[in-house]
Design brief:
Blueprint lengths: L9 E5 L4 H12 L3 E8 L6 H4 L4 H8 L3 E6 L1 H9 L12 H15 L7 E3 L13 H10 L6 E2 L11 H4 L17 H10 L16 H13 L5 H6 L4 E5 L3 E5 L3 H10 L5 E5 L7 E4 L7 H10 L8 E7 L5 E6 L4 H7 L2
Parallel strand pairs: 1-2, 1-4, 2-3, 4-5
Antiparallel strand pairs: 6-7, 7-9, 8-9, 8-10, 10-11
The structure holds iron/sulfur cluster (SF4).
The site of iron/sulfur cluster (SF4) has 10 residues, from helix 5.
């Protein structure tokens, strides 16, 4: 980990794990600036940081001697996603408001982390929604970051900031990248010895067409959707059953474990009673009806295909257990309820 020299300013960099944000860190480090990477935790990205000690994100930062801080903005983020002031992109991605919220939170941490300004890996014109010239300006203005926000990769295309004017950063050593191409960034990755980085735009589930569709439908059905619901919405197979309930079935052991970690009071857990198989979580169940459908859907994703199997339904937070003997659901049932 690089240590801060007494006279060097400190900068907080919004760190997504993508190549552009790590290049932003390196450009500033190269000028002797102490960099603290901010890793945001939201229900839609960064959530793994909450449970895992060593994510690939943290590893890359450690490899490059960059200090990092985690900021959990899950509740505020979810509120924003439900009603973004600047609207959505192609899917459920509220990119402008997303950036505003992160910059706003970074600004709030300046004092506590003894930092002078905030930087991002934004590249002018790279993304259609949040990296247009006017959008970059809106983000700066609406986050309250006037004079405190630097975009080191595109700085030479933008007016000089107070940060440069005050001499905290040497503008002549900042870059003038723009547009969608990645050639320059790949060259910079080689120069800075950055070997591990994800594909562009990878990782944001809000820009995923299938997930966005599911989330949209869920926000319409259940405006009170919370963080746990949103995390659950991203794993497994999903079914919306009659009566307004929601069934999730794990696709592998990892998903089964994740589902178990999200179970809460009022949920019903489904397992095969006698043989190993997937785990199901049935939520928002208001009626005892439809247990046969839920059990048969779980059965559908086991090796049992032709004969009835016993499914155990356990109500979380109570001792109530029900065993249902059922055949796997038909194609018709699966297609009718699958989301
Ligand atoms: S792609 Fe996702 S993480 Fe990136 S700005 Fe848009 S909403 Fe935020």
């Amino acid at each position: 980990m690089s240590t801060k020299s007494p006279n060097s300013p400190t900068c907080l960099v919004l760190y997504s794990g993508g190549l552009d944000s790590i290049i932003a860190c390196k450009i500033l480090q190269e000028q002797g600036i102490h960099v603290i990477a901010l890793c945001f935790i939201t229900p839609f990205f960064g959530y793994k940081l909450k449970s895992r000690k060593n994510t690939s994100k943290k590893k890359v930062l450690a490899d490059h001697g960059i200090q990092f801080e985690e900021i959990d903005i899950s509740d505020a983020y979810l509120k924003m996603v439900k009603n973004p002031k600047h609207g959505y992109g192609k899917y459920m991605n509220p990119c402008i408001d997303c950036k505003i919220l992160m910059v706003q939170n970074a600004i709030k941490r300046l004092g506590e982390l003894n930092a002078s300004f905030v930087a991002t890996g934004d590249i002018l014109g790279q993304r259609p929604m949040s990296q247009r010239r006017d959008a970059l300006r809106i983000i700066e203005r609406d986050s309250g970051a006037d004079g405190l926000l630097l975009r080191p990769l595109s700085a030479l295309h933008l007016p000089a900031t107070d940060i440069e004017n005050k001499g905290l950063v040497d503008r002549s050593r900042l870059l003038g990248l723009s547009g969608r191409g990645r050639k320059d960034q790949i060259v910079l990755a080689g120069r800075y010895g950055i070997k591990e980085y994800p594909a562009p735009a990878g990782g944001c589930v809000l820009a995923d067409p299938i997930l966005s569709q599911r989330l949209k439908r869920m926000f319409d059905l259940w405006p009170e959707l919370d963080v746990n619901d949103c995390v659950l919405a991203q794993i497994g197979r999903h079914f919306f059953l009659p009566g307004g309930s929601w069934l999730v079935i794990g696709r592998d052991e990892k998903e089964n474990a994740k589902i178990i970690s999200l179970i809460r009071k009022g949920d019903i857990k489904l397992d095969l009673a006698r043989v190993p198989g997937p785990t199901g979580l049935w939520r928002k169940v208001n009626t005892g009806a439809y247990t046969d459908i839920a059990a048969s859907i779980l059965c559908r994703y086991t090796k049992v295909k032709k004969h009835p199997e016993e499914v155990k339904l356990s109500s979380h937070g109570t001792e109530k257990i029900k065993i249902i003997r059922t055949l796997p659901a038909s194609d018709d049932t699966i297609n009718r309820y699958r989301m």
